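Below is a filled-in request sheet from our internal design queue. Each sheet records the structural input a requester submitted and the sequence that came back. We keep these sheets so that new team members can see what a complete request looks like end to end.

REQUESTER: design group, bay 2
PRIORITY: normal
MODE: inverse folding
CHAIN LENGTH: 192
BACKBONE (tokenized):
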């Protein structure tokens, strides 16, 4: 239990810092501006930290614990990770806004979560994913799959869609791909 708790904290801090780095990069490039909050009820519901924790906990049980953990035990770690990445992406397609960058970012995010799972267990993957979501939506007010919102303010995209992610949010942004790739390289180098 203690390993799951410490893994969760490490994952939480890493996930939150990664999306903060994306936000800082976009702000530095003046690709997003801070705007007043938009009170979209769907956005407020979907960005609830409690609801997000429940959804992320279920996703990580399926994507990492089952597809990486159990499948890896029956086949290989590589097969489990590849299956996890593929299923994670396919189940997020209904969120809309799919582009090549969405695919790339989904793969990089899933690989990161798999790495946290393999090194820190379920708690690490859960923390990484949960650190990302509330910081991205609840705290920073980035667009969420075509919904606009923000509880205190909104980070509104004003530059090209490939840079900011446009209405889909930073999960469709080139900056996110660069930050996730750099983080993945650093984590991989540290842990392997």
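RETURNED SEQUENCE:
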């Amino acid at each position: 239990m203690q390993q799951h708790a410490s893994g969760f904290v490490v994952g939480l801090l890493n996930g939150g810092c990664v999306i903060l780095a994306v936000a800082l990069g976009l702000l530095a490039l003046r690709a997003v501006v801070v705007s007043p909050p938009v009170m979209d009820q769907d956005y407020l519901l979907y960005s609830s930290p409690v609801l997000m924790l429940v959804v992320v906990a279920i996703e990580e049980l399926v994507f990492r614990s089952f597809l990486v953990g159990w499948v890896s035990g029956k086949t290989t770690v590589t097969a489990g990770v590849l299956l996890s990445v593929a299923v994670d992406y396919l189940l997020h397609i209904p969120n809309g806004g799919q582009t090549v960058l969405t695919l790339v970012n989904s793969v990089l995010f899933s690989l990161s979560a798999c790495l946290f799972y393999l090194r820190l267990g379920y708690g690490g993957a859960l923390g990484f994913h949960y650190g990302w979501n509330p910081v991205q939506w609840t705290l920073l007010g980035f667009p969420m799959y075509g919904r606009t919102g923000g509880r205190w303010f909104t980070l509104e995209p004003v530059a090209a869609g490939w840079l900011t992610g446009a209405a889909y949010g930073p999960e469709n942004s080139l900056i996110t791909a660069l930050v996730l790739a750099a983080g993945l390289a650093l984590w991989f180098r540290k842990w392997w």
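SHEET NOTES:
- Residues 48 and 138 are 7 Å apart (CA to CA).
- The first strand starts at residue 32 and ends at 35.
FILED BY: M.R.
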